[in-house]
Amino acid sequence: MPKVPIERIAQARSGDKGEGSNAGVLARSAAAYAFLKQHLTADVVRAHMAAINHGGVKRYAADNMRVLNFLLEDSLGGGGSASLKTDAQGKTHGLALLRLELDVPQDVLDSVTA
Amino acid sequence: MQRDKKVLIANGQGFWGDSILGPVRLVNEGPLDYLTLDYLAEVTMSIMQKLKSRDPSKGYATDFVALVDRVAPQLVAKGIKVVANAGGVNPHACKDAVLATLAKHGFHGVKVAVVEGDDILADLDALMAAGERFENMDTGAPLSTVRDSVTSANVYLGAFPIAEALDQGAQIVITGRGTDPGLVLGPLIHEFGWTRDDHDLIAAGTVAGHIVECGAQCTGGNYTDWRDVPDMARIGYPIIEAAADGSFVVTKHAGTGGMVTVSTVTHQLMYEMGDPHAYITPDGVADFTSFTLEQEGPDRVRVSGVKGAPPTPTYKVSMSYHDGWKAVGQLTVSGPDAVAKAELCAEVVWQRLALDGCEYAEDERMVELVGAGVCHAGIGAPREPEEVVLRMGVKGPDRAKVDRFGPELVPLVTSGPPGVTGFAGGRPKATEIIGYWPALLSKERVHTQVSVFTS
User: Fold this and answer.
1) Looking at residue B257, what DSSP letter applies?
2) Chain A contact for B316, CB < 8 A?
3) Mean pLDDT, to the nearest integer, of B39-50?
4) CA atoms of B305 and B250, how far apart (whole Å)
5) In chain B, where are the structural domains located?
6) What part of B 150-179 touches A (C-beta under 8 Å)?
7) Is residue B286 classed as helix, strand or coil in its secondary structure?
8) Which of B273, B324, B368 is facing A69, going by the closest CB pair?
9) Interfacial B residues in 418-447 facing A (CB < 8 Å)
C-alpha cells in the first residue's frame, strides 16, 4: 500500500475557535470517508499536529457531508489578539492536516480518481 | 403563489475588511431581493467603543456608508433591501449617515431601520448585581476577575428583530451585534412568515446564513483544489435562492468567476464548526448532520431536509477587555545559511535585552522563521530556504517592558550577521491586546428595540 498525503483523498478547511482551531476534513469519495473514519482518529491527528497544537484533539463526524471535524484545543498561541503567531487564526491548519501521510489502499485511491 | 415564491438573498461582505467589489457587483450583475453585509469581527466592537469614546458620532462601520453612497441609485431603482450589522456600537449615528447619504442623492421616502438592545456595556454592573455571573464559556472564570478592564459587551441578537424591521417596511436595516446567519434568516422570516416554533425552518435559514456568511468562501475562495477555480479575480459572491418550505439553492450570478459545488459549499459548512449536531443560535439549534446537498445544475447546490431543535434560554454575549500589550516586528535574513543566521539574530536580541535587565518569560516571547516551516511546524522534512523572514514578538502586562523590545530588533542590520534587511516598518511599538470573553445571559434580561426612520 502506498503511503500518500491524505490530500489525495480529502479536502479541508480550518479556522479559529476561541484559543484553538477547527479543521474540517471532507472525504473525496464514500470509500475515502470510510477509510478516514477508521484511520484518521483524534490520536493520529494529535500526533501529526503536535508542534502546532499543544492541547487535546476532539473529533466529530457528519456522515451526510462525509466530514470529520477536528477541534485542536490549544493551537493559536493564546488566540485572538493575544497571539503573536503568524497564523493566529488557524487558517492554515487544514492544509497542514492534509499533509499527513497514511497507507491508503489502492481501491480507495482509485475511488477518488474515477 | 406563496408556495412557488423564491427569494434571492446575497451576502456581499464576509468580514470587516472584505472587498467593496463584492456588494457593488452583486447589485449590478444580476437579480437580487436582499443584500446582506457582515462588518463585525470579535475585536471590532472594542475598537468601535474606543472610537465612539473619542468622538460620539463614530463607532460604526463607515465602509457601509461608502457602499450606500456608491450603490444607492441601483438599490432604489431595483428595490433591493439591505441588512447590515454596520451599526457597531453606534447604530443611530450609522443610520444618520445613511439618511444623509440618501438625501444627498435626492432619494426621499426610503425607510431605514435600527435594531438595538445588543449593547449591554452600561448595564453590566446592574446585571451582575441581579445575579448574572457572565462566566467565561471557555475557562469558567467569573467576570469579576476582569470586570474593571471590560471595554465592550454585546449580546448576539437573533433574526426576529430584523424580520420585525422589514415587516415595518424598512428597505435598509442596520443592526449592532447579531448572529451572522441572522442577517439571512431575518429576511426569510419576514418573507415566509416563519414563526419561533418552526424549528426546522429556522434551522434551515440558519444553515443558509452560515453558508453565505463568509462571502466568497463558499464560491471557490479558500478552496483546497484552488487550481480548479475559474476566474478568481471576478469571483461571484453567494446567493441563496430560498423557498417557503425551508429548502434552498446556493448559487451566484451568471457570468461571474468562482464556482458553486457540493464541495465548495461543504468547505464553508466546515468553517468554524464545533459539534455538527448542535449549531446553537439564539433562534434555535441547527443539526448540520441532518440535511442533504446535491448539485442540481452548474453553480447550483440544493440543500434540503434541515432539522432543528428549540432555542436555548440564553443569549451568547461577546465581551472584550484590556489584556495587556504586545509588540511584533520582522526582518528579512538572506542566505547563505539563512536559518542559522536568523537563529543567531533572535538569540542576540534576547541577550542584548537581558544585558539591559529586560527578560521575557518563555510564554511572553516568540520567534518565527517564516519560510522555514512556521505554518506547518513539525510537518514535512526541513529544507534550507533562500531567505527567511525573522519574526519576533513579546507580550505582557507592562507596556514599558513590551516597548523595550522594539529598539533592539533593527540594530541587527549593522551589528548582526550579514544579509539582514527589510526593516522598512521601523521600530515595532506596543499595541493593546484585546481579550475576548464569551459568556451567556438569560434572554429575559435583554430588551431589543426596532425603530424606523425615513429619508
Assistant:
1) B
2) no
3) 86
4) 15
5) 2-118+156-312, 320-437
6) none
7) strand
8) B273
9) 432-436, 438
Among A16, A82, A96, select the one facing B323 at the smallest CB separation. A82
Query: Minimal Cα–Cα distance from A66 to chain B, Å?
Result: 9
Name the one residue in this structure whose C-alpha cell is 475511488. A111
Do B240 and B212 meet the contact criterion of CB atoms below 8 Å apart? yes
Looking at 3.30.1450, 1.10.8, 3.40.50, 3.30.70, the CATH number of the domain B320-437 comes to: 3.30.70
In chain A, where the domains are located: 3-113
Using alpha carbons, select from B112, B11, B97, B98 the residue that is nearest to residue B55: B97
Q: Give the single-character DSSP code of B171.
A: S
Q: Which residues contact B119 (CB under 8 A, 6 or more apart)?
A: B89, B153, B154, B176, B177
CB atoms within 10 A of CB A93: 28
Chain segment A46-102, per-residue pLDDT in tens: 999 999 999 999 999 999 999 999 999 999 998 778 899 999 999 999 999 999 999
Is residue B411 within 8 A of residue B351, CB to CB? The reply is: no
Which pLDDT band holds residue B1 (cuts at 50, 70, 90)? Answer: very low
Neighbours of B286 (CB within 10 A): 28
Which of B259, B270, B279 to probe by mutation at the A interface, max A CB count within 10 Å? Answer: B270
What is the rounded distance in angstroms from the CA atom of residue B223 to the CA atom of residue B241? 22
Contact B277 A60 (CB under 8 A): yes
For this complex, say whether ipTM is above 0.85: yes
Mind giving me the DSSP string for B55-73? Answer: -TT--S-HHHHHHHHHHHH
Per the CB < 8 A criterion, the answer to whether B136 and B439 are in contact is yes
DSSP-derived pairing of the beta strands B34-37 and B81-84: parallel
Confirm or reject contact between A65 and chain B (CB < 8 A): yes
Query: What does pLDDT average to over chain B?
Result: 96
CA closest to A96 among chain B residues? B376
